[in-house]
Amino acid sequence: MEKSINVEEIKKTTATNILFLSLRNFGIQGISTIGFFLLTILLGTADVGLFAIVAESVSILGYFSDVGLASALIQQKTEILKAELQTTFLIQQSLVIITLLLVFIFYPQIALNRGFGTPETWILISLCFSFFAASLKTIPSVLLERKLNFKLISTIDIIENISFYFFAVLFAYLGYGVYSYAIATFIRSLFGLVTMYIFSPWPIGFSFSLDAAKRLFRFGIPFQLNSFIAMAKDRLSNLFVAGIIGTHSFGILSWAQKGPRIPLSLMDAIMRVTFPTFSRLQDHRELLQKSLERTLYFIAFFVFPSLAGISLIAPDIINLIPKYTKWLPAIYPLYFFAASAAIAAITTPITNAFNAVGKITTTTKLMIMWTVLTWIFYPILSIKLGYIGTAYAALIVGSSSFIVWWLAQRNFQVNVFSTIFHPLVSSILMIFLLIFVNIFNLSPLQNLSTKILVGISFYFVYHYLFTKSQLSWFLLQLKKIKNV
Length: 484
Description:
The protein starts with a helix and ends with a helix. The chain has helices at residues 2-42, 45-62, 69-75, 82-114, 118-136, 138-146, 150-173, 179-199, 210-261, 264-280, 285-320, 331-356, 360-385, 387-399, 402-412, 416-419, 421-437, 444-466, 468-483. The longest helix is centred in the middle third of the chain and has 52 residues, at 210-261. The protein is mainly alpha-helical. The chain has one domain. It is globular and about 70 Å long.
């Protein structure tokens, strides 16, 4: 009886948290999009590319910070013991300190070889501080995720994002150029750390339990192995591509990727909620199947039309502002990144479910496949075609993810194509409809407004006619959020 009650509670909490965190993430993306938009007016393409390159470099450090112990704590079925928390904290901070020492030992030689100057150094220092501050937030964040308290987590994320873009835009406007990124990164990291410990304090302490470490490493190391492979696939390949095409072209790619990443904030929100949720439901396979289907539909319903809409209105937004035409070369790559993001939006929840139920080896094999394809296609096409080739490579590698959709049918009895059918068809029809708007030769503002109005109207009319039950479910969840 108690088990059934817990399951019902998890279902209710998960639905509420997904929608709440999704709405919050859209708010965060709204803030970051406006901030990024202003920064890309005030700064040059090379400045944007420089920050993206350094940010990618420091992000690599995060993969070495806890060897998967935080994920092991979240996935753990039993209650977390104090010894496990303190053992995790000790191991993590030891790894963080070692990693930062290695950075400061080897960076001077790298800077000399690559011709890096003061701007690159200060951006690196600020991002290293951000890396250290993020490591201190790991345990409080784990405790919140175990409780599925994503409202508080999302509130802290909003505070960090507002502070970053406010100060980045402010100092860029005052003429600090690329240093604006460094200043804003320091402030954001400090605000986020202080806020996390105000709302989710824990008795910081160091201890080491060999038994606890063994239990955590048993899940954490295979999990982190996937993260290392993902790092080699995404972060290292991006740095390699940046070395091939240069900061200017990498800035173009960064702009092209920004738009498709906005709808993926919904996916990020769902991933954050569903990993601990799927972990709780791993002994209830029928309920897990339904939850995964609902997750895939919910993601497709919002992500597909958003990616289509962003791709079709991007040229109108650029043409609205004369100084913004420097980003016109990013439009063509944006289309390929959007298509790749649509595939990833459906693939990631499935691999997330594999991890949650302990099928780490399946995910590892998939990650190895994607990494090999990435290191084949990204360098070759980037060398031959520049940043356009990088965009082609992204879609080629992303298309291989259809094998994951087949695995979802085999392991969870989830028919992905059937689940996402209506969001996919309605989004494709919307694309053709909005392309048709272009033949009227309206002004950029009129074209933008018409596409938004027509696209939203068509999409919701379609779903009102063909998927009324799913819309009713969504409205019911919104009412639950209002009540909470």
